[in-house]
Amino acid sequence: MNINEPLPKTCFLTTVKNIQAGAIFSRDWAPLHSDQDWAKNKGKLPDIIMNNYTFNGLIIKYITDHFGPSARIGKVKFNIKKPICPNKKLEFHGKFINEDKISNQLSIIKVEINVKISNQIFASAKVTAGIDLSDKNINSPWKIDSETWKSYLAD
Amino acid sequence: MESNLPKEILKLIGKTFCVDTSPITVQKGLWQNFCSAIEDGNPLYWDNSVSKKHTDSLISHPALLPSWAHDFQWHPKRQIIHPMQLHFYIKDILSLPFGIVTDVEIEFYEQVKEGDEISSEQKLITISECVNTKLGNGRYWEIEVNYKNQVEQLVGKQNINFLGYEK
Q: Which CATH architecture has domain A10-153?
């Protein structure tokens, strides 16, 4: 891939059920993620909102869906600028911003992602990941030892 | 700047505030329910025959790392421990009733697998001088949370930036 090359866009439709399930299964009991009455009446929000872990999960899914299941996520930096509510179509727009080849088969890549709803940016993220260029599973980034791996994550 | 901060806050900077021991062992059923909610079919979370080639066995979804250190919503024998106690302690000391997360950075070092036990340690890294924001007057602060497994390996680290404010 070339630097600044866009990644294919993907979409995810939020629902009451998947926002609640994301919160509950990430063991986040805060009512603004699962209780619509609380969110609207006490939280003064338009509805329940997606929690950080679910959002991070979708960012990681975007990377592994594109670069393959063996992509090893090293770092995710993100901020959610506007609340993400049910019944919204999230669009994930990624851009490839850096590649460090660490061997013939393995690279450490950086990707920037904007998450839009109706063409407005609701959240953004930067991800650092190790990917296997060979796609033969013989040089999996998961085989890199932890100390070496940590050194790849330093900015 | 920092000299305007209460002593209770100054003495927190750079020191471990609390260690929360693992309330629950990592379980495949829990992480697969999460994967189902976000429709993530990555075989490393689902399919032993694929995960064997990369991670020797199934791994938990990385996004759940902080979740394994969260307490239950209710427990039959003890009071529950709320997540991010340090954040709420700082808000209380500074009398800032509202708080939001401004950004999050999380690093993943080790795989998390069935049966692992994840504990967490919270530390205040920085706190700003008073700021005027659209939301109100307050301060920014950064908390680092280190996650360790049952053999004390550092599994990952999360740095969370907050704004605490009053209207």
A: Roll (3.10)
